[in-house]
Amino acid sequence: MTALFALATSLLWGLADFGGGLLTRRMPALTVVVVSQTIAAAVLGAIVVGTGGWSEAGPRLWFALAAGLIGPVALLSFYQALALGPMGVVSPLATLSVAVPVGVGLFLGERPGLVQVAGILVAVAGVVLAGGPQLRGAPVQRKAFLLALVAALGFGTVFALIAEASTTVTGLFLALFVQRAANVAGGGAALYVALRRGAPALPAEGTPWRSLPALAFVGLADVAANGTYAIAAQHGPVTVAAVLASLYPVVTALAARGFLSERLRAVQAAGAGLALVGTVLLATG
């Protein structure tokens, strides 16, 4: 069950990243984050009311709140790092996020077997290569490197926090709602500051009504990914769940190949293959 839900997480996150990347070509990244997360929060709020999730309120919600506040910081740091580039170096650095939940799992006493350790190493190497690392060319600015590390630390911390935010299904809906509400609050504050500084909130053609379904998909896919990861981490080793969930860059690369006809570089194709081998080792180990 852990492998299945963790792989579902990587699929959902990969598609959400692909959709978010397309949307940010047409409108500001902050707008994409705030609108997509607002839609997700509204849907989750309706689910919480319908399932009586409010009865699950308790101290664990602090984990969800913390995840919701850290998430936007990590995402915006990542976007800024990508803007400074080169993307071929910055993007793979984000996969270091897996070190946080894996470290938490080891601290809590998890001891993966030799086959699983091999699977972790192979899968992480595959994910880094699938990101298309730029081995030659312009050097990475120190600011871009630091921002990428901040993003990786933030993403990994969200991984660890959301796994601790609930123990039941209805409680998970409530935890995800709290996380999304915090995302909207944090992202909204950042958007307000950006607007005060003169940054645009909408594309040149005005309110992007036609993009609302795509924005909804991005927000809901991201929420679903958090939910499937929490279930994966609760029903099996966190070390395995975190590594399998971190395969989402492979999904994003394959989506770009399938929908945009972007050609995979040889290193990306090799990375996808290694990630698949690592997945098999983890699932069978």
Task: Provide structural commentary.
InterPro entries: EamA_dom, EmrE-like. It comes from Streptomyces cynarae. Helix 5 runs antiparallel to helix 10. Helix content is 75%, strand content 0%. By secondary structure, the protein is mainly alpha-helical. It has twelve helices and no strands.
Q: What characteristics describe this protein?
A:
285 residues, mainly alpha, 75% helix, globular, transmembrane helix, EamA_dom, DMT family transporter
Briefly, what is this?
The chain is 75% helix and 0% strand.
List the helices and strands and how they pair.
Elements: H1 2-23, H2 29-51, H3 61-84, H4 87-93, H5 99-107, H6 114-130, H7 142-163, H8 169-196, H9 212-234, H10 238-245, H11 248-260, H12 266-284
Helix pairs in contact: 1-9, 1-10, 1-11, 2-8, 2-9, 3-7, 3-8, 5-7, 5-10, 6-10, 6-11, 6-12, 8-9, 9-10
Class by helix and strand content?
mainly alpha
Distance between the termini: 13 Å
Q: How many strands, which pairing sense, and closed or not: the largest β-sheet?
A: none
Cα-atom radius of gyration: 18 Å
Give the total of beta strands: 0
Task: Provide the helix percentage.
Answer: over 70%
Number of separate structural domains: 1
Strand content: under 5%
Question: Mean pLDDT, rounded to whole units?
Answer: 80
Number of contiguous helices: 12
Low-pLDDT windows of residues? none
Shape: globular
Order of helices and strands: HHHHHHHHHHHH
